Amino acid sequence: MAEFSAKDVAELRKQTGAGMMDCKKALEECEGDMDDAKDWLRKKGLAGASKRAGRAASQGAVEVVVDGDVGAVVELNCETDFVAKGADFKQTVADLAKLVAKEGEVGLVDKPFGDSTVGDAITQLGAKLGEKIELGRVVRYETSDGLIDGYKHVQNERGVIGVLVELGGVDPGDANAREIAHDIALHVASAAPRYTTRDEVPPDALDKERAVLEELTRNEGKPEDKIPQIVEGRLKAFYQDYVLVEQAYVRDPKTTIGKLLGSLGSNAAVRRFARVKVGEE
């Protein structure tokens, strides 16, 4: 008998949008394995958008700093949103982001910070606020010939999504390029792409997606000889959902991010991006 709790069922329902009894059945069939249960629901056509499959983490806040050719995102986690939107907590995140942008992320917890180190300061802040506080994700980009921009989405009085984007093949001093870089950063915050181009999709992830789609299509009763064609069509939708340059631009769904980049010239490209959302891994 598979071992799982009512909390596991509720979490699977939250992540997939499937019904409670379907989630329970999925966990039973998959011996309590959450990832396998998600795939089981998708194969049966019972899951909602797979984009909701990110595992919930804790509360907290993010800060974004862009200073010339350097950008940084820092996440600080806590237990409640009440603490996360407090002045002391938000100031600490802001100061950490500035420190990372200036001095780098390597060995961050041991870097001088105020009258102590980053690690000690976080511990002291936790004691002061009465909650467990931990350093979350830290991202730093630096470029010598590209353009870096960032975006912070604020909700409930603190940053909840932080984004960095690096463009290449553009003139960093071009105002239009900077505007488009910022537009793309805002898009990344909203659309949550996983990959920059198709080439970045890991082969095992693609094989897994193809297998899920094949079984889903077969379970829908489609003719066997039509399944490969249908699956390839659905894979195109997968790319449009998760590959940045193929996504529809959130401000103009008739335009893709790839076409938006093309307006800057044939060499313009997104070299990399980072998206840090509080509560997700």
Structure report:
The chain has two domains: 1-56, Ubiquitin-associated (UBA) domain (Helicase, Ruva Protein, domain 3); 59-195 and 249-277, 2-Layer Sandwich (Tetrahydropterin Synthase, Chain A). The protein is an alpha+beta fold. Strand 1 (59-67) and strand 2 (70-78) form a beta hairpin. The protein has helices at 6-16, 20-29, 34-43, 81-84, 87-103, 118-129, 175-191, 203-219, 227-242, 257-262, and strands at 59-67, 70-78, 112-113, 116-117, 134-142, 147-155, 158-168, 248-249, 252-256, 269-277. It has ten helices and ten strands. Helix 1 (6-16) crosses helix 3 (34-43), helix 3 (34-43) crosses helix 8 and helix 8 packs across helix 9 (227-242). Helix content is 43%, strand content 24%. The strands form four sheets. Strands 1-2-5 form a three-stranded antiparallel β-sheet. The protein has a three-stranded antiparallel β-sheet with strand order 6-7-10. Strands 3-4 form a two-stranded antiparallel sheet. The two termini are 30 Å apart.
Describe this structure in a few short sentences.
The chain is built from 10 helices and 10 strands. With 281 residues, the protein is an alpha+beta fold.
H and E order = HHHEEHHEEHEEEHHHEEHE
Poorly predicted runs are: 49-57
In order across it, which strands form the biggest sheet? 1-2-5
Q: Tally the helices.
A: 10
- Cα distance, first to last residue? 30 Å
Give the % helix: 40-55%
The CATH architecture term of the largest domain is 2-Layer Sandwich
CATH homologous superfamily identity of the largest domain: Elongation factor Ts, dimerisation domain
Sheet of most strands = 3 strands, antiparallel
CATH class of the largest domain: Alpha Beta
> Which structural class fits the helix and strand makeup?
alpha+beta
- In the CATH scheme, what's the topology name of the largest domain? Tetrahydropterin Synthase, Chain A
Instruction: Tell me the β content.
Output: 15-25%
Q: Total domains, how many? A: 2
DSSP, total strands = 10
